[in-house]
Amino acid sequence: MGATIINMGLAVVFALTGAAAGAALLIWFSARIPAIFDKLTPNIDEGKEIVRGNRAVGDYYGRIVSAAILGVSIIIAASVLGGLIAALH
What we know:
This protein is mostly helical and about 90 residues long. It has 3 helices and no strands.
């Protein structure tokens, strides 16, 4: 019974640690992804194009950035789940 409680406590600690690390990574990646996208398209200033009303650039930019953020989120969720599974074994 004691080992079960310890394992459950470790699972909670691993989940909270993984969630905190995941949140920090997601915030960091969310700030870096637009900068990376700007370097990939040096001849286009997305901010100016969006302000000028160019919806095509805005839609494309939004989809690329949101897809990258979702991809990072899925990877972080998988790592948190892996930590939980490791703690419960």
